[in-house]
Amino acid sequence: xxxxxxxxxxxxxxxxxxxxxxxxxxxxxxxxxxxxxxxxxxxxxxxxxxxxxxxxxxxxxxxxxxxxxxxxxxxxxxxxxxxxxxxxxxxxxxxxxxxxxxxxxxxxxxxxxxxxxxxxxxxxxxxxxxxxxxxxxxxxxxxxxxxxxxxxxxxxxxxxxxxxxxxxxxxxxxxxxxxxxxxxxxxxxxxxxxx
Length: 195
Description:
- By secondary structure, the protein is of the alpha+beta class.
- About 25% of the residues lie in helices and about 25% in strands.
- It has 5 helices and 10 strands, in the order ββααβαβββββααββ.
- The strands form 4 sheets. The chain has a 4-stranded antiparallel β-sheet with strand order 3-6-5-4. It has a two-stranded antiparallel ribbon with strand order 1-2. Strands 7-8 form a two-stranded antiparallel ribbon.
- Strand 7 and strand 8 (about 145-150) form a beta hairpin.
């Protein structure tokens, strides 16, 4: 398949559940549109199959009931309606870098944080406290420090893994050491690296 905007546009779409050190716990290959007639969105189906991942407020709630801790980025319209009471992205971008807004329904905590872009996070076990400082490089200035909610810091650390790479990124880097070869379609006996 072709994925626009990626450095390597052609290949297989693969969902991975990885530890911070890159160890894959579960892999799922995208095989095309599901024809079984499920009314659930693709993301929800993938999340449920992987168990420990989340992409919506309702899934974070379900995982909390299963006693599974989860923190992940979330689209603003999948916040269980909380996006209606948040400051808009436009408003957030007018504020200084490091500003944030948050809401909780007592089960799931949703955070909107302004960094390079506006990021939305959901967690069923962490909040914004304590707020720390994070170093950011600003063009034409020396390093500056901005507010960073605890939830964001924890998310970055857990995604950071080895050398500040996410678990999936670490796995990809390790797999890059073993470049698989594929045979040309013309059957000429030549092998081409997939990357």
